[in-house]
Every structure is written in C-alpha cells, then in structure tokens.
Amino acid sequence: MLKGKTDLLIINRSFWPIYPVIGEALLQLAEKLARIRKVGVVMQDHVGIKARLIEEQRGQKVDFYPGKAWSSSSSGLVVRALDAVYFMCWVALILLRNRPRTVYVSTDPPVLVPFVVMLYARLFRARYIYHLQDIHPEAANTIVRVNPLVYRLLFWMDSMTMRKADVLITITDEMAHEIKLRSKTSSPVHVISNPAVSFDEVEAPDRKISGFSFCGNAGRLQRIPLLLSAIRKYLDEGGRLQFAFAGGGVFAQDIAEVASVSEQVEYLGQVSAGEAAQLNCSYEWALLPIEDEVTRYAFPSKTSSYVFSGAAIAAVCGSDTSVAEWVSEYHLGIVVPPGIDELVDFFWQVERSEVASSTYCEDRSELMASLRFDHFIDQLLAIVPLDH
Questions:
Q1: Residues 174, 113 share a domain
Q2: Which of 45, 117, 266, 270 has the greatest number of beta carbons closer than 10 A?
Q3: How many CA atoms lie within 13 A of 238 on its CB side?
Q4: Gap between the terminal Cα atoms of the chain
Q5: Residue 21 — pLDDT band, cuts 50, 70, 90?
Q6: The pLDDT of residue 73 is above 70
Q7: Is 70 exceeded by the pLDDT of residue 72?
C-alpha cells in the first residue's frame, strides 16, 4: 500500500470561524487528533483563516489548505454551483498531493466533492467517512427542479459514494433510512445530532420578550414567504407580539422590507453565533419553519441551538415529518400546520395566553447533554477509522 503523507484529511467547505457549529466542531476534532496524528483540513476561506488561526491561537499542529471562497449562502444557484466545481478541483489537487490514508468528507458542497473522494479512495486504497448533513440531489430538487438527466447522474454518483464509504454518518433516523434504501449500502450508518453553538456567554433575561425569534438561513426551504404573509396579516389585525429575524439568505431582503414598515418586526441581518444565541434566549418562542418534503433529506441546523436557548419551539410543518416528531417527542413546543390562517390563529393564541411558552420549557438537561460539542466530538472520535 502507498503510504500516505497525512493520516486524516478533513474536508468541509464551511469552516470556522464563519460557520460556528460544524466548523468549530471539526476544528476541535482536528486539534485533538493532531496531538497524535498528522491531520489536514481542506476548507474555503472567507476571512483569511490562517491569520485568524494565529490570532486566536487555534489549530496547533494542524495543516490547513484553504481555497478561496467565491460565493456565500445568499449567492445565486449558478454562482454557488460554479464555486462547488472550483472547490472540487481544489480538493482533488490536495488529495493527490497529500495522499491521505483516511478522509472525512461532508456534504458541503454535495455530490461532486464526495464523489472525488470516493474515486481517490478506490485508486489509492484509502478509507473515507461520508458525513451527510443532507442528502442530495433530493434536497436540492425540492428547491429547484433539477433536469431529469442531470438528476439521475447525480443520484447515481452519490449512491455510489454512499455504497463505497467505510463509514456513513447522518443526522436523523429518517435520513439514515433514506440512505440505506437508496444506496443499498452494507456500511455502518451512524446517527449523530449536530451540536449547538456555545451558550456559555449568553445572559438569560429576567423577563423574555413576548414574541418570536428566527435565527438561521432565510432560504427557499424555510417557508419565509408564508411566514411573512402570516405576520403581515396578524399585524394588520392589530396583533401586538414582537418578531425578530437574524441571518442571511435569498429572502433576507423580503424580511428587511417587512421590518422597515413595522416596529414589531426587527431584522438584524447576519450576526455572530453569540449574538444569535442571545437573541434566541431573549424571546419566548423560536420559529422553525421547514418544507415537509425536505425533512426526509435534511434537518434544520438551528434546532440544537433552539434547545439550549430555553425558548419554546414553533415548528411550521406537517405533523408527520421528522421535525414535528422531534419537537413532540422531546416536548419542546408545538407544531403549526403550514398555512397563513393557521399561523395567524396560533399567533393570536399566544398573545391571548391560550398557548404558554412555559409549558414547553421544562428540564432539557438530558437532551442538551447529547448536543454539546464534547459529546459530538467524542462520537466522531469513536467512529473515524484511523488504524489500518
């Protein structure tokens, strides 16, 4: 066997400090393993990461291979697709140059980069862990219908990548079922919940604001147009609750326009992880809107942080989705059917105290323990196969 220069190469386009959840978790994983192994990280660079690592004294003994970032979450689909192709070429170059023995790769970006890792592993007899934060091309197809020929090609590529992986990781049991059903893989599929951002420096207010917060991507899967239509109707009827939004995405401008004409709606734009955590803690309710179809292939990343915030969760989705089941199983909040009238009625029920957030803010310590960074990293350490 060709001896690799790197024991483990971690590949995830979104990384610290721009992406404070998975990015931070993978940085901590790399730092831990770098004490005893030769570890590298491939990511896209938004902020001059090498200088930032030195400034923050992070990433000791880890080799970083940053590629330039050409897009963000608010960029158009074409720009993001071209950026994904660029990153794929960058990953291929690093793989061929470093010849890692084991590769950890996530679905960020999807399909192309994991497929390149699969080809590399087959050619050079390496091993790889495939971490599916979402399942593509199905997740993308719920946003914009992909050309049928392209869809079938991407489906075949990703199924092959799943089937050949040494280990697969995903977020929910429903997603694990889809992976097994689609790929017919015989490899182990582990379910690991994503961790939450740190709430160590967050100060819980003595009295929470009566209303709702939303932190995360205001994208095509989050039912933002529906949510805004319901908020407008509720406010036009004289509703008094407050609404606060933070985050970017294709519907960010729509949120800003509603906020510009209503004192009860606030849009904070892109904020830091700490600021988002503080915002969630300040409101009685947290909004969790999601398209039903996509819950088979993805799970909202903001859920873990919502748990730590202590806010009751209002999931806007169908009752037979994995998100609805999660909210109900852990008694975290209420599931509101995705309709304008249903949402407006719910807002009025909250205002009239017919639905109390305190009902859903009981002891969450056991669930919170399973969503901490150290637990997530320990689970990854137990799964990543480093010894041949």
A1: yes
A2: 117
A3: 1
A4: 11
A5: confident
A6: no
A7: no
Tokens of 257: 């326009």
Claim to verify: residue 187 and residue 214 sit in the same structural domain? no
**Do 181 and 237 sit in the same domain of this protein?**
no
- Spatial contact of 335 and 341, defined as CB atoms under 8 Å apart: no
Structure tokens at 217: 């991507």
203 found inside a domain: no
Residue 150: CATH number of its domain: 3.40.50.2000
Provide the percentage of residues in the chain whose pLDDT is more than 70.
97
pLDDT of residue 217: 87
Angle at alpha carbon of residue 14, lines to 33 and 315, rounded to 5° = 110
Both 161 and 218 in one domain: the answer is: no
- Answer yes or no: is pLDDT of 387 > 60: yes
- 191 and 271 both lie in a single domain: no
Q: What's the domain count of the chain?
A: 2
**Per-residue pLDDT tens over the stretch 275-300:** 888 999 999 999 999 999 999 999 98
For residue 96, give its domain range: 8-195+372-383
The single-letter code of the amino acid at 160 is M
| Residue linked to tokens 């292939």 | 297
Residue pair 383/167 in contact (Cβ under 8 Å)? The answer is yes
The residue type of 26 is L
